[in-house]
Amino acid sequence: MNMSYAPFLQCIQKDVPPSSPSTPREYDARLLLLSVRNADKQLKPGDATYEQRIEMMVLLAHDLARSHARNVGAVREDFSESTPHEPNVAVAIIDEPTFVGKSAILRDFLSKRIEELSRPTVRSEATVSSSVVPPVPKLTFLMGTDTVVRLFAPRYYANEDAMVAALRRFLSPDGDDSRIVCARRVSRGVPRTEEEKVEAEMDKFAMQIIPSRKLHFVDIGEEECTYSSSEVRELRARGDDGWRKMVSPRVAEYILANHLYSSSL
Questions:
Q1: 103-107, 147-151, 182-186: which range is least confident on average?
Q2: d(CA 88, CA 62)
Q3: Is the pTM of this model over 0.70?
Q4: Cα separation of 105 and 151, whole Å?
């Protein structure tokens, strides 16, 4: 989970079209997911530990639950905890590096959990129809362009045929029926024309896998699209407080209190 994703989580709801005319635009819940295995990255000296990352994600979840603002960095420090809010934000840890694998594990876990919660209690058993079918979880994964590129790269699978089969299972209504939302971001040193070319290629490839719209590209704001965890760490190391607007208030205080990313250490 990228710690600068808070603005993305706030912005995408308004931009993603419903998957069908009868499907509401909003999501039922948001899950912040920490993977302790990454297909490309390993923890380096000076990085936040997994324990620190999960603690920051819990703080971010609290800020997201408290805020309806477009930019979570604008949440007031004195915001009342009793203010009505949407509490359906959770944090999870997973030991799976690929999104195809994450989708299968999460869907299996959530389906079982929903079924457990849907079972009638002794008191309500007489009033609840046994024919009620628990809802089936449908996952939407929020990614940056660089992550979507890796999702469609054969080198992360046994071979190209295995990749196509895995992606079909991931995206197909007969499989996991997951969706991808890709937040357009400004990458340093990459011209916008090049990013548009990559976007068109990915969209075409996704339609070849499943001939339905399962990959959505969204704009998240001129300023928000420039945010990145790398810049947060770089600005913090230089003593530039500009990094604070890229994270939520509680996460900013945690970084300061734990002296993370500071060059003085």
A1: 182-186
A2: 10
A3: yes
A4: 17
pLDDT in tens, 34-90: 999 877 777 888 889 999 999 999 999 988 887 654 444 444 444 444 444 456 889
Dist CA 230 CA 23 (whole Å):
36
Say whether 203 sits in a helix, a strand or coil: helix
The two structure tokens encoding residue 42: 């390993």
Cα–Cα dist 230/235, whole Å: 9
């999501």: which residue's tokens?
A: 27
- Residues 143 and 148: their CA atoms lie apart, in Å, by 6
Taking only the tens place, the pLDDT of each residue in 198-222 is: 889 999 999 999 988 899 998 888 8
Tell me the two tokens of residue 146. Answer: 């660089």
Alpha carbon 171 to chain centroid, angstroms:
17
Compute the residue count for the chain.
Answer: 265
Question: Which strand ranges, in their side-by-side order, compose the sheet holding 179-183?
Answer: 140-144, 179-183, 215-218
Q: What stretches of the chain adopt beta strand conformation (E)?
A: 30-35, 89-94, 140-144, 179-183, 215-218
